[in-house]
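Here is one chain, start to finish.
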Amino acid sequence: MMLETLAAATPGLSLAETLERARRVIRQEAQAVAALEARIGSDFAGAVEAILEDGGRVIVSGIGKSGIVARKIAATLTSTGTPATFLHPVEALHGDLGIVEAGDVAILLSKSGESEELRGLVEYLGRMGVRLVALTGQMDSSLARQSEFVLDCSVAEEACPHDLAPTSSTTAALAMGDALAVALLLRRGFGRDDFARLHPGGALGRRLILRVADVMVAEELPLLAPDAPMRECVMLLAERRGTVAIVDGDRKLLGVVTSGDLTRLMEREEHFFAISVSEIMSANPRTAGPDQLAAAAVGVMERHGVMALPVLNEERRVVGMVHLHDLMRAGAV
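Its structure:
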């Protein structure tokens, strides 16, 4: 209905033409981003090393749509281990320059490289000796000439049909900022635990810090010796949620029997109660470790179509059982 309304409000443009224009936007922006790959070179490497070597914060600035992209780049840098802050180029000249210190590196965004609002900020940063990284679409612009490192974010044309509204250019600048953030993340050796430390709240934080040990059942575990009859196993399967671990005298895992195994056994054997569990068990079951990320355990279950995993310590002794439903309730997915 919304697309039909849009088409009706655009004289001479049919719904089919509207949809094709929308697809063209996606193609153009994808092409603009793809073109950046060949431009990752010495200036990009220099910007990464400058940020790592100088050890200060990263100041990110831009005006208008570039300013919006700059805010996102600053947020991405900060959340991946590179302290960064957005500095509005106009407010900077009215007191906010107090956040800039020696050792900081500034990333400045401007499609034209001639933004009037950035000129005063660039001049001040230059006097302070702050190293400048330009993300611009004009490599011969004033901003490019004044910057130590210049990252080419130029695009053939905007996705806007009038080649006016920032579309492809802002997408390209955003992608270049993401490339910088990821490069810095890799150079710092910033890992999952570091990411979890900076994202303790919300669903993302839970997935990054939740371990199997936090969710697993550790008491009254469904364990049987390999010579136990299926009669005992049937009871445990019913009482303990469909998975029984078969262990030796040292509680080391030998295999598992599941409700699915029982169903298949009942289909082919009329009298099965006396059969030993060792004849039925899967001898190489999927398992989890107590320190494994809960989200990783979910991935194992989904890939292999199982509902529970025995949890083993370093000696391969069964210390728990983790169930998919418990992982889901705990927010591991």
